[in-house]
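FAQ
Q: What does a multi-component entry look like?
A: The components come first, one per line:
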Amino acid sequence: MAEPKQERATRTRALILRAAAEVFDESGYSGASISKIMNRAGVTQGGMYFHFKSKKRLALAVMSSQQTFIDFPSEGAGLQRVIDLTFHLAHELQTNPLIRASIRLAVEQGEFGVRDDTAYQDWVALVETYLLEARQRGELLPEVDEHDFAVVLVSAFTGSQLFSSVASARADLPSRIVLLWRYLLPGLTPPRTRASLRVEPADRTPAT
Amino acid sequence: MAEPKQERATRTRALILRAAAEVFDESGYSGASISKIMNRAGVTQGGMYFHFKSKKRLALAVMSSQQTFIDFPSEGAGLQRVIDLTFHLAHELQTNPLIRASIRLAVEQGEFGVRDDTAYQDWVALVETYLLEARQRGELLPEVDEHDFAVVLVSAFTGSQLFSSVASARADLPSRIVLLWRYLLPGLTPPRTRASLRVEPADRTPAT
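Then the predicted structure of the entire assembly, as tokens:
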């Protein structure tokens, strides 16, 4: 039975986005080309132009799809969930070319004439949701503004991953995130909550 | 009297660096060209190639000259000096195309195939010096490591200016720096010191 048209279009779009992210990750924006991406995705010129009219639009779409490239850990709650998110994202940046490309494009967007903070705002919104949960659990200091702190955290994480990427190709990113939390937690949470938090990467040793 | 050769070479190199920074600021790395930079600097092809053999080397030199593009405020001491530095740098990013280009190249260096953290390390070293002074003045909490905090601050500042540049072309950068300090100071300094610090841009109203 033939695949319904709408479904096929959605699948093709996702294929193209993945291929584009891989090519941008390998070659950067200026080194990537529409034809390279078409070949990687295995789509025709018609299929490509139906979804994306230019390399710039492709880059914008990859840039704005950051959260769709990741599986989020479902366990944890409140502040622990925010901390786990930062370590999870650090691990994804080390191992997942799609999220790496997406974040790289967001950082280097000036180079292709774009100024769009959607990617940053999406992370701020996600962190803010987790922080509102932390607030309800009584984990935040009274003077903390959830939105403001989310902006500070997303900024600090962005700079940390950038510095780490030039210093060590992100090998030292987890230890930089440990440091970040060491200096952010005292202004965020009371000492008794702080003592109960796990500020380290989740154990990824596969069960034997 | 003719200018001594050595002096002229130094002056030409500085001229070229300024012109390159201006052109990179306006056009980004891929939009800039050696000939455009030569014209702007008013140097011959021979003069250019004596100092810089390629656009990439020029970009590296601009990227590593960040601190030479700024006049640093000389007043202030210890922790206040660190805070003042961040607001001063925010103001420079808003108004000085040389530092803007230099930082932009450091951020977008992946786009031209470079991985060099000198620019970041220079800022870490400067902040660490100020923090060691703050330590001697008794302004830091005992558990603070001056180098670690300098890394965190440089990272957080980098991410803040990047987020601000896409959100508001850096118009809101000073208020983001205020937020950053709000959440960093509790982990850095005791309450009595915190109360004595001025966490806002210096007054730039010209005397009348």
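Q: Is there any commentary attached?
A: Sometimes. For this entry: Chain B touches chain A through 42 residues (CB under 8 Å).
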